[in-house]
Design brief:
This protein is an alpha/beta fold. The chain is 54% helix and 16% strand. Helix 1 packs antiparallel against helix 2, helix 7 packs antiparallel against helix 8 and helix 9 runs parallel beside helix 10. The chain starts with 8 loop residues before the first helix and ends with a helix. 18% of the residues are buried.
Length: 641
């Protein structure tokens, strides 16, 4: 994994190029300094050679001593780089290796450099033997041969030694070339600045792209892409700019589509809300109008004197009585569904024996199954045991499942299976109702629990029913914290599995932890498991799905807490919280705690909606995920102080 920190590309470009320019300037200056000083040193050595030729020529004459002295005095006075000029006489030749005279090392590091120049004369006789021996011994290094001036009559008089002060030579050269060095450095700097300026062109364009990117990052709601200035038409930067424009255009198109979907969703929500209100009104009409009329019909039938009726009249009354009983059952289920949706149905727990409950149901449905010619069997996988739950609702759920199984089975059997599993903190009771009936198409498995849903809605359908029974079963199971699953194969049969969690003695002690706490739970589609957990802790929870009904109920009853479910968007929670706080202004002695539960995917955007919710009067915002019931109880204790 690459752990290196990120770097800016501009710094990455500037640093190495600036370092390269500095190193290049230093190297160029150093090379020019070495070359100039070496060249000056070589010129000076050539000049010394010329002076030495003049001095040796003067010293070779008979009266040349005075002339040489005058020349030496003049040279030393006029040329400070010549440290000394010495003449010494010797008849023996001296080997003088001048190969290093023009060495650049002497020019840079030596303090002084000396050179010997032979002085010969034709006026002095020389021993020829000695001269031949000297020539034979070292013909190349002999000063006589090197000067080319020795003849058979010449005689070595001595040597003139000239010492050059190299340090003084360097100082004089630096003083004389100081201005030239300054101009050279200045030109080099100007040229470097020009190069950096040329390099700055793409960097400016990159900075322009960077500023636009920062503007987009810091302003997520920006609707128009800022102008991207490009001074120079660099192909790579132009492609990046074009890609950025294309991506921003696509983003705007997606945002427009999202806004259209949001508007459409809002319209659907308004229509759904309107339909829910109409459904609520329809259910109220059924409750008050149809039930009253139906009660009158049933009462009138009961007042008839069957002894005074003939056979045909009795058959007609029996048909009317049978139809009225079915209608009463359907209306009772619709009324019960309406009460559950309004939150008017609560759970009342009591101890019961599951074996006795199943036995009573088998006795009740055995005649109906025998009449249709099907078998009604049971399988019990546990011993006699006592459970605690809402026995009436459990009986109603299992009874509805058995009734459906017998109704949609024309041959074969209906099997009810009971399994009981004991855990450390709870008991799980699972009841399975399986039939060999017509089955359900897999495309309709998710719809059979919807209110008034019919797989075959035509008038000529074989099986009668209002389509409310399974919806009541589903919502009643959720009210108790149970789950109901269905598995079916068309033409083979259907299996319903009811799974209920029953408290053990340890859980029973926790049920009274928040006894007396009144909570109103406002949800949109499904209230989930939070309501069950709150009721498990002993709180009284009223579920509300419609805003106006919730406000009406809160006018009559005071709630300790009002909780907004995770499927309620902040835009819906804010106006409702404002209405609740306005409603509480008339009663200064009571104030409900408002809690907003937000889902997991909104954690990152919490800062965008939490201030608005709290400004509207909501006290706490919390994620709708908690570890267990202990964590939930700790939250409630914290909120209640």
């Amino acid at each position: 994994m690459n752990n290196r920190s990120s770097q800016r590309i501009l710094i990455f470009i500037w640093y190495p190029i600036t370092q390269a320019i500095i190193v290049g300037v230093l190297v160029a200056f150093l090379l020019s300094f070495v070359y100039g000083l070496t060249y000056h040193y070589q010129e000076k050595q050539s000049h010394i050679e010329q002076l030495a030729t003049v001095l040796t020529a003067s010293a070779s004459t008979v009266d040349g001593a005075a002339v040489v002295a005058e020349q030496v005095k003049t040279l030393l006075d006029n040329d400070p780089s010549i440290q000394s000029i010495i003449f010494y006489s010797t008849p023996q030749p001296i080997s003088d290796n001048n190969q290093s005279i023009f060495s650049w090392k002497n020019a840079l590091f030596a303090d002084t450099v000396s050179s010997n120049h032979p002085v010969v004369s034709n006026d002095v006789e020389i021993d020829s033997v000695n001269t031949e021996e000297i020539d034979a011994e070292n013909p190349r290094t002999s000063p006589f041969l090197e000067t080319g001036e020795i003849t058979d009559n010449s005689t070595l008089v001595g040597y003139i030694n000239i010492t050059l002060d190299v340090s003084q030579l360097r100082a004089d050269w630096l003083r004389s070339n100081l201005l030239l060095c300054f101009i050279t450095i200045l030109l080099t700097i100007l040229w470097s600045l020009y190069i950096l300026r040329k390099l700055n062109w793409p960097i400016k364009d990159i900075e322009g792209l960077t500023e636009v990117c920062n503007l987009i990052i810091n302003n997520p709601e920006i609707e128009k892409l800022p102008v991207i200035d490009q001074r120079f038409n660099f192909q790579e930067l132009a492609q990046i700019k074009q890609a950025l424009i294309i991506l921003f255009t696509r983003l705007q198109k997606v945002k427009e589509d999202y806004d259209e979907v949001a508007v459409f969703e809002k319209q659907l929500y308004s229509k759904d809300k309107s339909l829910n209100v109409q459904l609520h009104n329809f259910q109220n009409m059924i409750t008050h109008e149809l039930k009253t009329s139906l009660n009158a019909i049933v009462g009138g039938l009961q007042l008839l004197d069957h002894n005074s009726l003939n056979r045909e009249q009795k058959d007609a009354v029996e048909i009317v009585n049978d139809g009225s009983e079915k209608l009463v059952v359907s209306l009772n289920r619709i009324i019960q569904l309406n009460q559950i949706q309004k939150g008017q149905v609560s759970v009342h727990s009591s101890e019961f024996n599951p074996l006795h409950l199943i036995s009573d149901l088998l006795v009740e449905f055995e005649p109906v199954a025998r009449e249709k010619g099907i078998e009604l069997n049971s399988r019990i996988h546990h011993i006699d045991y006592s459970l605690k739950g809402d026995v009436e609702k459990i009986r109603q759920i299992i009874s509805a499942l058995l009734s459906n199984a017998i109704k949609f089975t024309s041959a074969g059997q209906v099997m009810i299976t009971s399994q009981l599993t004991h855990f450390d903190k709870s008991n799980r009771w699972q009841v399975i109702v399986k039939d060999t009936g017509i089955g359900i198409d897999s495309n309709h498995l998710e719809d059979i629990f919807n209110p008034f849903f019919q797989i075959d809605p035509s008038r000529s359908r074989q099986y009668e029913g209002s389509g409310v029974g399974l919806s009541v079963v589903k919502q009643m199971a959720q009210l108790m914290g149970a789950t109901i699953d269905v598995d079916s194969l068309l033409g083979v049969g259907t299996q319903f599995t009811l799974t209920m969690s029953m408290p053990n003695q340890r859980q029973e002690r926790q049920r009274n932890l928040f006894a007396g706490l009144s909570i109103v739970y406002y949800y949109c589609y499904d209230y989930g498991y939070l309501v069950n957990d709150l009721e498990y802790l002993g709180a009284t929870v009223s579920c509300r799905q419609y805003e106006q009904l919730m406000i009406d109920d809160m006018r009559n009853e005071k709630a300790d807490m009002v909780m907004f479910a995770e499927d309620i968007p902040p835009s819906t929670a804010v106006p409702l919280a404002v209405r609740i706080r306005q409603l509480e202004q008339s009663d200064t002695d009571h104030r409900s705690l408002l809690i907003y539960w937000y889902p997991q995917h909104r954690v990152r955007s919490l800062e965008s909606f939490e201030p608005t919710l709290k400004a509207a009067g909501i006290d706490y915002c919390h994620i709708s995920i908690y570890d267990n019931d202990n964590a939930l109880s700790e939250l409630l204790e914290h909120w209640l102080g």
